[in-house]
Amino acid sequence: MRAKQWATWCAMFVLLACAGSARAQSEDSAGDPGDSLDALRQGRLTIWVLRPASGHRPRGASAGNRDQAEITYREQSASSFGQSASDYGTASSNYGVASSSPTISAENAMPSTDQNTNGNTAGTPADPSSKASDYKEQTAGSFGQPSGSFGTASSNHGQTAGSYGQTASTYGTAASNHGQTAGSFGNSLSTIAQAGTSAANAPKPDPLQERLAADLQDLFPELQVQFVDVYVDDLKDDLAAVKGTTAYPDLLIGPLSAEWWSGLQGRFGLAMLQPASFLADGLPYGESFTPEFAILARAPHMETAKAFALWMSEGDSCAGCVQQSSSKRSQDAADVAVSAIGHLLRGENLGEAADPSMADFSPRLGQGLLATTGNGVADAGAVRVEVIQASTAERLAVVALRVMVSSDSVFGLAHPLVVLRRADSGAWKVLHVSLNLPEVEQQSERLALANTSPPARAERHAGVVGISQASPADGDSRPPVPELWWDNGGGAGLQVVEWQRSRGGWLDSHLYLAPDHNPKLQTRVTAQFASSQGRYRWRVWSVGAEGEMKISPWRTLNILPK
């Protein structure tokens, strides 16, 4: 355990060091909080916190029928709400599907044959429904390199369930002055107690919920927020019971059941954009997770609920940030990046905006950014693309973007990352697009790509020599998760493995980062991304000072069945 904590702290130190040196190497256009969170600053929210078991509620008792005996649905004060982290939902170590499972899907399925981003024709893909059987997403413990090399630790972006929060006895805002009082919101605590609920049957305090309440109070002191505990098995009846009343919730937070995703969302909730897939990118991450949440379609305070969802999705570091000012060089790169995402959202190729070396894939894959978890359809008119932050060097630019969809039926966020290279003409050209990344991964990759100068002065002056791929040979077949290695010519501070998977045609590409801060003649990485049977291809970017870059040829790789 101590070794793991030490590795986490080392990763934090490396990331912070990269952030500082990145500013010395590149122009970093810092994001500032925009107006997306204004509704949280003086709004009102009612949040139902879902509990995973129904307890002892008698048949017929519901949130709207509180005169029934033994009702376990209660409005909680700061000293009583929640349950222990060990009882709450799913532990981060069990969250999702284990790396040994062959059933998880983490990539967009290839759509029908269309032109690729450079205007070429892509192959006919397989049925999207087939993807679940042959692609495996990695657990937090199996990504990329050891924690001691590079990345963002969980203590820097989010916290584990066990450390997230504070005890009720140290929480500073009493229920009587936090949001609405119990007497003005549905039934009072005394009424509920008279109905048969006792403090002995109250759920145990939940550190996650307490920390959430504390953070909201600290960051948005004017926000009036009400937390109400609801058992997940009773959700359908409780929502029906409070329909049309002041007790109707704005959001649900907690373990959403299969019943919610299979039917209740279409009846009660907004459709949400599909979440980003966490693919191996070479950077280590600690154990962390964001609780599931949903926005109700009839939320009384809809704009505040959407602002809360944005804040939950992007964390405290710079939730809702947008670039306010930048140099002309950064602004030019940001404009090209925004335009590129706009083309992909419409299923259009990038044409002359694409770098000649950009990986080919069907531009219709970009429309997958607007795929939803429910029945709603994201209207292109409801889409807004914002620049979170742009980092530029003399020859390389990295732009972190936010795609926000907000309408009466759909809400959601996506976080593309666009890498651009300056052409001989001086114009920025799109070299790579990561269509949607978790926000923590987006920012970590941006920082890494903004810090590419080698530490040795001699290497910086010599320039990038490039690499020579050694193994596997082009077209070779290997067991899952093979080792890739190449010979270094020197001059780089970052090696980037760009990879694609074929499913009837090449899917969109992804980046696997290997910081090159120590002089060495050879680099070996474990291809965590090549974990399922199929055809892949890979190449290496060798990136040095001011974004100078040399790119190796593509090599194909066939992964054998396990």
Automatic annotation (TrEMBL):
Instruction: List, as start-end ranges, the regions of compositional bias called Polar residues.
Output: 74-123, 139-165
Source domain of life is Bacteria
PROSITE patterns linked to this entry: PROKAR_LIPOPROTEIN
Which interval of the chain is the signal sequence? 1-24
Record region (Disordered): 51-165
User: What's in the keyword line of the UniProt record?
Assistant: Signal
Give the protein name, as stated in the record: Uncharacterized protein
What organism does this protein naturally occur in? Granulicella mallensis
